[in-house]
User: Fold this.
Amino acid sequence: MNLQAFYRDPYPVYTEARRAQGLTFVPELDAWLVSRREDVREVLGKPEQFSSAGALRPDHLPSKAALSVLSQGFGGARTVLGADGDAHRRLRRPLVRGLSHAKVAAALPFVTERAEALIGSFAGDGQVEWMDAYARPLPAAVIGHLVGLDPADIPGAIRGVQGAETLVFTELTETEQVAVAEEIVDTQRLLDGYARARRRDPRDDLFTEVVRDLAPGSEDLTLDQRKEIVSNVQNLLLAGHLTTTALLGTVVLNLLRDRRQWELLCEQPRLVTAAIEEALRFEAPVQGFRRTVTTTVTLSGTELHEGDVVFVSFASAGRDADAGARVDSGVRADGEVRADGEVRADGDVRADAEVRVDEFDIGREAFRHLSFGHGPHGCPGSQLAKEQVRISLEILIRELPGLRLAHPDITMAPTLIHRSPETLFLTW
Assistant:
């Protein structure tokens, strides 16, 4: 299997890996695949044995010409994604504060206003390409707002930070690499200007939180401090919008792919939360990250050694039928009580093998998915992502209940970083 084919549909590989004894080495990943839910939890819960250094290994190395351009910017410093221990806690602290429940709650009026404006801009057209018209611009506007960017700067900043991902995960010509690198550097210079401005004039925004935590004091920022701040804000802007973009794409795709799911949601809007959790379980917006083994350790019967690399698949964990993943009790969409498994109309508990993990079902018993990670690196922006999707679905079922897929054949983006449709044409 070539790399692009694997990226577009990794689930058959995940399924075989879960069935296999021990871990499976996947050549496309050049890593041992951690596919079962409990193994994923174990790795994520033991950062001292499984380091986050190199969590995102590039698929393509930039050319010398592109690297020369990048050397003129303010990137290259360690970010929260690839840090461990005290360094990780230090880099994560301002994100946890800046994305707290209170901060997210305060941003919801802005989220709602932007969501209604975007949907209103195409609601009368009868058709839309969902990803470009809504799934990309809404999260970009929201994270830009929370970070504290001027609205006029947000589109350019988002293009620049996306370029950082494009440069290392997309095959480009040297000329294309240089052009992308120039955009990245332009964005880094923009963010550096914000960093120095926030030092002089602190505000109630996430950028100020980052500056305060990573560069305590009031003196002018050093070059190293500026690079660390810019690198981490750049990472925040990227993660803060692409994860939600991916989820907005896959939740709408899977609700409409089986028309009964969408109709059930329109009939019972209280299932919006269940739909979001099922979308996260079924199609993790971030498929997973790499971890590097720091000492000899045995995982699922496979002995790993220092320097070995594992790919921890959040997505595969979501399709593990392990009974431990299911919530112990709950109520079905039809009001039928479930406990210790799924309860059918005849009162029988469905066996593990019949849980149908490869089906999208908003009426199923909730799974404790790991799609936002687990342990020290659990996503601090998970609530913000869920709230954006909740608001979006509530507006859609109210304003566009006749929503349908315009084309049944959907191509997924060839990446494991943010799992989403390349395009998603809808009609109503």
